[in-house]
Amino acid sequence: ALCCSVDAAAMQVAEAHGHVQTMAHTTQPASDLDDENLRGEPQPLQTGEIARAIATRLHLLSYAQRCALALACADALEANAGAIEAAAAFDLDAGMTAGLHPDLMRVLKTQAQMISAISPDAIRRASCEPDHLWRTVQILPVSPGVMIRRDHTPIGLIAVDFGLYLVSVPQLVAYAILTGNGLLLTGSGLAAHTSRALATTLAAALDGVSGCVFGGVFALIDVSVDALRTQPQFSRHVHRLIVLEQHGVEVCGRVAGPIRNELVARPLCAELFVSTRVVLVRSTAARRFCRSDAAHTHVLSCL
Question: Which of 24, 61, 264, 300 has the most beta carbons within 10 angstroms of its beta carbon?
Answer without folding.
Answer: 24
